[in-house]
Design brief:
single chain, mainly alpha, Preprotein translocase SecY subunit, two-stranded antiparallel sheet, 68% helix, globular
Length: 439
């Protein structure tokens, strides 16, 4: 595929006032978000919190949450909850839309979608209040973390964090409406990317002190390039199912031949969600042992400690399960078959209706397996590399999938904006990131 001059493509971004304004607004909103993510909430000794998080496994639930908010949780900032409450509420209603007929019907109408959006905001407030109150109790449990513990501190912390979460939700919606790309995804993207530079500095310090050998870092760099390339390939990989839709336009008294097209069925349709669900579930034994003080729960938690063979096996099984589970929720072959039938389209060699839905479901089931195996490998890779090379960060997993996915989506949006305005995009051919065909 021929490519245009990258420097010229970047110049084209600022030749159109509307696109220039969108990019400027997005950058300004992200700067505001990152400033708020460094303002500490009152009544907290941040040093005690940072020390606690440094002693925790980064694969735990708190480590995952802290990753999504750019370290705001470990610093007790006013944006400590970040965009996570809004994403959690969105996932809940996404699942309800798939399993509850009333919500499924609402999703098909514009007024119904507006109501679902409103319900999502209300649930975001509820989730933020619960998480803020739980975070206040958590900080009180750490010795020396809270200057004046008590009911007043909990109310104050809940008020600050809930307000911060609502502002972040509003900021994400503004980016989506007035900026470039999906606001919630970009907030998480920059929260993850921001932590790259401190990790590079720590790695350099490890090398200077002799903790990590230089040749190991070179090997790590090679592995990182390969993993990123594989992640990009799997993210855009899709099985293209050919379809034909008859043209209704008459030309000289005769109907035109049917238009040939395809349905792109993505190999990794679930994206990063299976890893998030698996990480949420696998920390349950440790959480139960911490709060129940039961000997049985403690024994189970010891078996499930990160780095043990039981942890890796259960973690892999959970990712495989949630990959199929979440794909079945977000992907409905019956709806695709019905919409195709309404347009008069069909898959060559397959009868319209139920047979088409069965065929699509069978194809999705087949291509989901390699996607699930890939997710499992990406999730386990950072832990194995971190232990083998002894570096102060974990490369891969959830963060890599989010960065790659959001980056590709944002490039696609900018590409479409450039082509609409008759400029050469980042690639001369194709207004969007092309899917790679997988049989």
């Amino acid at each position: 595929m021929a490519r245009s001059n990258p420097a010229e493509a970047v110049k084209n971004l600022f030749k159109t006032p509307e696109l220039k304004s969108k990019i400027g607004f997005t950058l300004l909103a992200l700067v505001v978000y990152r400033i708020g993510a460094h303002i500490t909430a009152p009544g907290i000794d941040v040093r005690a919190l940072i020390e606690f998080f440094q002693n925790q496994q980064s694969g735990g639930l708190l480590g995952l949450y802290d990753l999504f908010v750019g370290g705001g949780l470990s610093r007790a900032t006013v944006f400590a909850l970040g965009i996570v409450p809004y994403i959690s509420a969105s996932i809940v209603f996404q699942i309800m839309t798939a399993v509850v007929p009333q919500f499924e019907k609402m999703q098909r109408e514009e007024e119904g979608r507006n109501k679902i959006t409103q319900y999502t905001r209300y649930m975001t407030v509820g989730i933020a209040v619960l998480q803020a109150w739980g975070y206040a109790l958590f900080t009180e449990s750490l010795q020396g973390a809270v200057l004046h513990p008590g009911f007043g501190f909990r109310v104050e912390m809940a008020l600050f964090l809930t307000t911060g979460a609502m502002f972040v939700m509003w900021l994400g919606e503004q980016i989506t409406e007035r900026g470039v790309g999906n606001g919630a995804s970009l907030l998480i993207f920059f929260s993850i990317v921001e932590r790259i530079w401190p990790s590079i500095g720590q790695t350099w310090a490890y090398m200077q002190t002799g903790t990590t050998a230089p040749f190991k870092l070179i090997a790590l760099g090679i592995v990182m390039v390969g993993v990123v390339a594989g992640t990009v390939a799997i993210t855009v990989a899709a099985r293209r199912v050919p379809i034909q839709i008859p043209q209704r336009t008459m030309a000289r008294g005769r109907q035109r031949e049917s238009a040939k097209n395809f349905i792109p069925l993505r190999m990794n349709a679930a994206n990063v969600m299976p890893i998030i669900f698996a990480q949420t579930v696998i920390v349950v034994p440790g959480t139960m042992a911490q709060f129940s003080k039961s000997a049985t729960a403690q024994t189970m938690a010891d078996y499930m400690q990160p780095g043990t063979w039981m942890y890796f096996v259960v973690y892999a099984i959970l990712i495989l399960f949630f990959t199929y589970f979440y794909t079945s929720i977000i992907f409905n072959p019956i709806d695709i078959a019905e919409n195709l039938k309404k347009q008069g389209g069909f898959i060559p060699g397959v009868k319209p209706g139920a047979r088409t839905a069965e065929y699509i479901d069978r194809v999705v089931t087949r291509i989901t397996l390699p996607g699930a195996v890939f997710l499992t490998a990406i999730a386990l890779l950072p832990m194995l590399i971190s232990d083998a090379i002894n570096v102060p960060f974990r490369f891969g997993g959830t963060s890599l999938l989010i960065v790659v996915g959001v980056g590709l989506d944002t490039v696609q949006v900018v590409q479409q904006q450039l082509l609409i305005r008759k400029y050469d995009g980042f690639m001369k051919k194709g207004a969007r990131v092309r899917f790679r065909d997988r049989a």
